[in-house]
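Good day; I would like, with your permission, to put a structural problem before you. The record follows directly beneath this note:
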Amino acid sequence: MTRQYYLESALLPQGWVRGALVSVADDGYISAIDVPTAIEAQTNGNLLPETAHASESIAGIVVPGMANAHSHAFQRGMAGNTEYRLSARDSFWTWRQAMYALANRIEPQDLQILATQLFIEMLKSGYTSVAEFHYLHRQPNGGLYAGPNALWEAVADAAAVSGIALTFLPTLYQTSDFGGQPLKREQARFALETEHFLRAIEERIDAERHTARATLRTGAAFHSLRAVPLATLREATLGLRGLDRTLPLHIHVAEQIKEVAACELHTGRRPIELLLDTGLLDPHWCLVHATHATGAELQGIVASQAAVCVSISTEANLGDGFFDADRFLRFGGKVCVGSDSQATVCPAEELRWLEYQQRLRKRRRGVLADKSESHVGTRLWRHAARVGAQAIGQPAGIIAVGHRADWLVLESKHPSMAGAPLENALDHLLFAGGAAAIRDVMVAGRWVVKERHHAAELPLRGRFAALMARLATPA
């Protein structure tokens, strides 16, 4: 049965509107949107004649939910536990050893608890879908799981419990460094042979064709050019494209200067340059980080129509560097955001610091606004929501017919939104603590958060606390 919602205020593709009647079909997709004409707005106070027939009236400001285009759920188990100094040369590479230690302690039941807690946190912060870049494949002893991969199933089960839309990205990981170096002992759980990788993804795609879950999508990822030799990347990409021409494909690239230097040493080219030269990139690719990209490389990414996912909180936490967002957007680039290592689980913070990085570098304000949209918050939220949804293959990111009803409802009377004209709402969300104003969250036409509460959060709390206490204790 189609449900109708009267939205008091909403951000639609044409801009901010007051009063909109939105029809949502049983499958969670928007089937119709009616907005008041100028005459109706003047005579009826923005109320449509059909409003009386709406199933539900939504007070507040409705905006598209955000896609989390890059997440490692298991790393929620180390958030806050590595913020102490080991040496004067602490870096991404020393942090990585702590990450490996955690990865080798996680069992499937642990991952389900971590991912469920994390996905609830994502929903409450404004993420309505997530791309899980997943490279935990094997048992701690390096053996394969019998039957369906228990670690993969743990992530899918967590998404089902939380209600978040999931794009699952099984990740190919075969070498420890450029030059085909073998995996290290602590990386044994990440290993997959190319044939097994392709077969497992094909099986998931086939299974999805027979499921009623409209919020589940399979893609694929390559961990990095360090972890996947170029010939293997070509072979696997062609195999994946044979399964689905629109399959989302993601890769970490150019996150660290050391990585760029090693790539140049072994191949004579920089990582992004090497990827571009393959001719494989297309609009269904997403390059994660791209922190150390030259102007020519940024232009090449734009020409390929691939997206870039940044995770400013993780990149700052690990000391990666600054992504040149201003130049990339001026070139016509597509940017989305992700929570990555879960140092922060808040899209408003990611976008705020995307802008703030540019302000600090350029010593001016409003850097990422443009002529088409002068409000920084509106420009960044709309852009990242649309690009992120496309990058993870989810039919969301805008409130429009044919797209899924993935919405956030901002409480207009919340102190962080107080006094804000409608056109300033997303500026308040990003720059005035407005994430606290997220009251309700809908995914595929179903409320998963109401009045800031998720039905699964209290029953989960004790199990999550016990797990975190165990993980904080050295093995």
